[in-house]
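I hope you will forgive my troubling you with a question about protein structure. Could you please explain, in whatever detail you think fit, how the structure tokens follow from the sequence? Thank you for your consideration; the sequence and its tokens are set out here.
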Amino acid sequence: MTTSELERWIDEARAIAFDAGQLLARAWRRGGRVTQKGAIDLVTEHDLASEALITARLRAAFPEHTIVAEEAGGEIARGLAWYVDPLDGTTNFAHGHFVFSVSIGLARDGVPIGGVVHAPAIGITWWGAEGIGAFRSVGGVIEQCRVSENDTLGSSIIATGFPYDRAIDPDNNLRESARIIPQVQGIRRLGSAAMDLVLVADGTYDGYWEQKLAPWDLCAGAAIAKAAGATLTDYEGGAITLRPKNRVVCTNGRVHEVLRREVLAARADLA
């Protein structure tokens, strides 16, 4: 795989994400069938329609690649694999909130290497890949993404999220949030991990942490963040390799170790 090949693949994924986003934009705030995968974990008919569009197009364009999608499932794959979240932020979408996205990521042997995140309600697309860089398009205007230069936690905007099983599992990010919120300038919780990650890539957020992320939650945004110069590790400081449940700290690099240490310190009383 050459850099030019990877760039062509990401361009194709951008076109697919845009078309899936058009489908979602037409359905947004117009109702539709909503079912529950869990107590607070929703899926709509539009998740399914978006996923069908994306997977069909990816199979046609990349018949030799594996596809792992949120609703259809699939195992973490060796070689080249696309990880698809057809509607990241389903709860937001179902309630008429504008923060939701289409996330299409490419990994090689479980390591994110490229991705596209398209937010149709606000008309912004982010994409990037190793060796290419990271970019944002708004209204056809393309600009390169770079992480922020902020170097203190006290002046940082930090994002996080909470797992769907937070009411029944004590490992629910409440300890971490209670410790970190008083130390930062602002805390944000969008409800779309893909958008949290690309906002670190874009220099809007200085950092982000979250746990229990599925591979399709993480792959595209992680690749874009890395391409923009972000530092990504697990909570212990190890490299990110996709697994069924991922724990990630993503920052501009300058506040990485202090944020990661604070997350671990908050978890010290967990067995």
Summary: The chain has seven helices and 14 strands. The mean pLDDT is 93.
